[in-house]
Every structure is written in C-alpha cells, then in structure tokens.
Amino acid sequence: MLSVLLGGGGGLGWKHGNAKFVRHELAAATPFYSLLLQDTYSLKCSTSPHFNFSTCCFKTYCKRSSEEHVTHNNNNTPFPQGFSALKQVYNPLESENLWSSFSLYLFTLHIPFSFGGLSVVSLLTRQPVLDPQTQALSLLIIQILELNGALVLFKYTAKPHYKFTNFFKSNKLLNDRNWLVASVLGFGFLVLLIFLTSLLADQLFGSKPVNNPILKEILLYSDISRVSCVLAYCIVFPLLEEVVYRGFLLTSLSSTMEWQQAVAISSIIFSAIHFSSENFIQLFIIGCVLGCSYCWTGNLYSSIAIHSLYNALTLLITYYY
Questions:
Q1: Residue 291: pLDDT band by 50, 70, 90 thresholds?
Q2: What is the rounded distance in angstroms from the CA atom of residue 252 to the CA atom of residue 242?
Q3: CB-CB neighbours of 175 under 10 Å
Q4: How many C-beta neighbours within 10 Å does residue 320 have?
Q5: How many other CB atoms are found less than 10 A from the CB of residue 177?
Q6: What is the pLDDT of residue 314?
Q7: Could you give the angle at the alpha carbon of 171 between the alpha carbons of 169 and 174, nearest 5°?
C-alpha cells in the first residue's frame, strides 16, 4: 500500500502541483473528496480517521488497483508471462514437496490401481481370464478409486486451505479467453497433429493396426460394458489425469520455471507414466496440447473437455473400424 502524507510543505516530496485536495476551510469531519495524481495508475484513496490539527494535514492511504497494476507492467497484457495465465493461479504444492507428493501418488495409487487392479479382481473372482463386461466394470471402479485416492492424497500434501475447486475458478481477467472456444480449437489442433504424426510414423516404420482388440471386444460385448467403458474413458480418465498432471503438476512447475518448460516436462511425465513406448510421441503431443490449453485459459475446463473429446473419438474409431 502506498501511503501519502499531504502537508503544508508537500510532504514526502509531493508537490502541490501534483495533487488537488480539499482545503482547510472544510470541516474536519468532511470526507476526503479527491486526490488526482499525475500517474498512470488509478489510486483508491481514503483518509485516516485522525486529523492532525498541529500540521493541518490529512493522512491518506492509496493503493493501486491490482488489475491495472498487472496490466500496466505488461504493456496492456493482463498476465506476467503473456500466453500463460497460470501465474494468476494459486500454486497448490510447495516446490520442495512437489516430487515427493507426485512419487507417493505414482507408487501408492497409479501403478497399483492402473496396472495391478484387474489382476486383483481376477484373484478375487477366481477367474484367470475376465470376461469383457467384468473388465469394463472393474476398470471403471478402479479408476474412480484412484481418482478419490489422488484427491485425498493431494489434499493432505497441498498447501493449507487449498481447495480442489481452485482449478475451476474463472478469473475476471480471463473474460476474453473462453474455455469453450479453447476446447474446440484445441481439439481440432490435436486431431490434426495426431493425424500428421500417424502418417509420418507409417512412412518411417510401416503401418500398424489402429484398433485396440481388447478395447474393441469390450465395446462390442454388451450395453453394460459399452456404458462402463464410455464413463471410464470420457469422464473418469480425463478428470483424473487433468487434475494430477495439469492441475497439480503443471501448475506447481509453472511457479518455478517458464510455462513452456513446465508444459514440456509435465507432458514427458504424462507420456512416460503410460508405459507405452510405441505411443510415447503421440502421448507427448497430447500432453502438450492439453497443457497449452490449461495455460491459456487458467482453469481445467478446456483441457478436460479436449481430453474427453479425444477419448470419445478414439472409442468411436475403435467401435466402428
């Protein structure tokens, strides 16, 4: 807060030519009406309730409007980094706790649930080979459990009083960054990039089957298996991965480095966590597009929407082709 003391001699170096104020003939109880400074910032001013009769001056407290301060310092760009709005987002994790918290999630939740969950179901049901419907239902339940476990874990490792809903709060400085527009553009750009990289991969390494035979079998087995698969791939998976990799990881990284570096690092981790070497490049591209969308809008709505649409497109292609 900028404190300005206006006195008989100008006070703190301020000259009478730089300010207009109500003169001493007004009663002491009269409100302080105006203070116009020759500056580019807007100042919100109020007088102290104490009037000093010995110096016959008002003590006025002024502060810059935070929105105008950010805009002025960045050449009318409302964000410190230009493209990215994540500097305006409250950082959920302390930098020294980031990697320990993420490692805890990886080894206690992600790997056991995602890669060992179906094996546990097979042991419990005493079925060496699960039928497609059981696989789909089990996959949905396992991912819901992992999502809830991740939220509980990060709640206790995040900064005090941090709320999960902060990822979805809209910033009034982001009115021109509509998440719906970002979702449509991001999805179209993602599909184009994946199509081009697939063509390039086919030219370099030969064509490979597009369909996942296990996923196709699940989709064709029954209505229950189809609904369970759609819920898992289009709702639970996007919500889980966006909260973890974009919400907690990318937001925390962007507070310690440039947003481009943060997007690249989080995308590499996102791709590596899937443990699929043949799809590493495509998963990295997906992570970059989702990360850029999150950086641009400042909330997770757009990245979740793009992720859900892409997974839905994958299910449609698998089902029909």
A1: very high
A2: 13
A3: 9
A4: 9
A5: 18
A6: 95
A7: 130
Strand residues in 38-186 grouped as ranges (E):
43-47, 58-64
Rg over CA atoms, the chain: 28
Cβ-Cβ contacts under 8 Å for 202 (sequence gap 6 or more)? 208
Question: pLDDT for 155-171, tens place per residue?
Answer: 899 888 788 888 887 66
Question: What is d(CA 137, CA 100) in angstroms, rounded to the nearest whole number?
Answer: 32
Q: Whole-angstrom Cα distance, residue 66 to residue 238?
A: 34
pLDDT (0 to 100) of residue 209:
72
Residue found by looking up tokens 């929407």 in the block: 305
Dihedral angle at the C-alpha atoms of 51, 53, 55, 58, nearest 10 degrees?
20
| pLDDT value for 87 | 65
The pLDDT of residue 69: 41
Q: Which of 48-52, 106-110, 256-260 has the lowest mean pLDDT?
A: 48-52
How far apart CA 263 and CA 251 sit, in angstroms, is: 9
Amino acid letter for position 22: V
Q: How far apart are CA 33 and CA 47, in angstroms?
A: 9
Order of strands, sheet of 58-64, starting from the edge strand that comes earlier in the sequence: 2-6, 58-64, 43-47
Helix (H/G/I), strand (E/B), else coil: 45: strand
Nearest to 291 by CA among 317, 321, 252: 252
In three-state secondary structure terms, 269 is: helix
Yes or no: say if 162 and 101 are a contact pair by the CB < 8 Å rule: no
